[in-house]
Amino acid sequence: MPARVDLSSITPPVSLGALDGRYRPAVAPLADHLSEAALNRARVHVEVEWLIHLTDSGALPGAPMLSDAEKDYLRSAVASFGADEIAELAQIERETLHDVKAVEYFLRRRLDAAPSVLGEASALGSRGVAEMVHIFCTSEDINNLAYALMVQGAVTEVWLPRASAVVDDLAALAREHAARAMLARTHGQPATPTTLGKELAVLAARLRRQLRRVADAEYLGKINGATGTYGAHAISVPGTDWEEVSRSFVTHLGLTWNPLTTQIESHDWQAELYADVARFNRVLHNLATDVWSYISLGYFTQRLSAQGSTGSSTMPHKVNPIRFENAEANLEISCALLDTLASTLVTSRLQRDLTDSSTQRNIGTAFGHSLVAIDNVRRGLAGLDVDPAALAADLDANWEVLGEAVQSAMRAAAVAGAEGMANPYERLKELTRGRRVDGAGMREFIAGLGLPADVEQRLLALEPGTYTGLAERLVRHLDG
């Protein structure tokens, strides 16, 4: 075989995974929250705020009070964190061989440079302030808070708005077709008619319930030392209420304080959140498979321009439901990762092991595949048109589904005192089980039952397309 170009050596680097390759446009906003660079920026943020908090709270006797200009200077290390800072931090880590220690040295460099920016009198240039960087902190004090902030931002600023948008699209489609009669299929067999809108509304309501759970998620954090005891704090500065300093710091960051931990924050909140996101994914997967089936039945047609694709490489007549199929695959991958995160993060050997460090680096991938699926479902829904003729033809071919209505009306008439209503189920079973019944045959059967006149009139006027109960009205619960 002739020599080939080594793709691993190409510059810029070739993407190994789909999220940083073909799916990049759908997931790019997550990089600002859940990438390795975002993790390091969040670590810098936590270290800076911890330093400021210690000076503001008076927790350390002798520590200077920082001016607003000095606080702004420290926070600018977070605000300006970009390509140069990413490269600088990577270079430091190559020397420290420890990611959080690299952040500490990165911040100390900023303190060393402060007098040249703020003046020689700045407290930031003092040895005392330099020693306050990362004081009383184990790596996990920084990491757990960084991850909580990152996940919180990713969920509230990226995932929830996208997920809410696809549910809003679905709800709008449900309202539009609230009265559109459709043959239902239980166990895949013709069943009591419903409306297309009502079936879509069921899925929209299920998805909204999961969105409420995700929106109400708690993001926990801790900062309490190497094994969660405040050991170094209490022996070094026994006069400070370190629990209150910790609580006020965590809540100042916009997180919920966890007072009882080992070296790590227990990650239970992450497991709860990922289970809820996975459940949303699974309901969305249900939507994708149902819509795929409705397309197969001809209830929906697809606009090729909206799908933005060639239907088939060899069969020119086809418009494949690729958006929903793509969504299925990405939802399954996302759920697999979220399930793994939820099941593994809640366990840590004794006071700490390192498994969570590697595991949490896949949070962005899990959310990324969910976003790809959401994007595909939105695009798929936008390219659908309902085929009223197909829906009507299916209903008209299945008059036997009125058997439920007839036998139920006979039972109700019997309860009201009508004679001759015995064995209604069995009589309808004999008429309809395993056979097609047309409109004339059903009406002939109804007319021969001896029903009370008002009941007979209602049933004779009934058609599969009008036997939808309260389905149209039920869609209104989406706005309740």
TrEMBL record:
It comes from the Bacteria. InterPro entries: Fumarase/histidase_N, Fumarate_lyase_CS, Fumarate_lyase_fam, Fumarate_lyase_N, L-Aspartase-like, PurB_bact, PurB_C. Pfam families: ASL_C (PF08328), Lyase_1 (PF00206). The keyword Lyase applies. Pathway: Purine metabolism; AMP biosynthesis via de novo pathway; AMP from IMP: step 2/2; Purine metabolism; IMP biosynthesis via de novo pathway; 5-amino-1-(5-phospho-D-ribosyl)imidazole-4-carboxamide from 5-amino-1-(5-phospho-D-ribosyl)imidazole-4-carboxylate: step 2/2. Keywords: Lyase, Purine biosynthesis. Its EC number is 4.3.2.2. This is Adenylosuccinate lyase. It comes from Georgenia alba. The gene is purB.
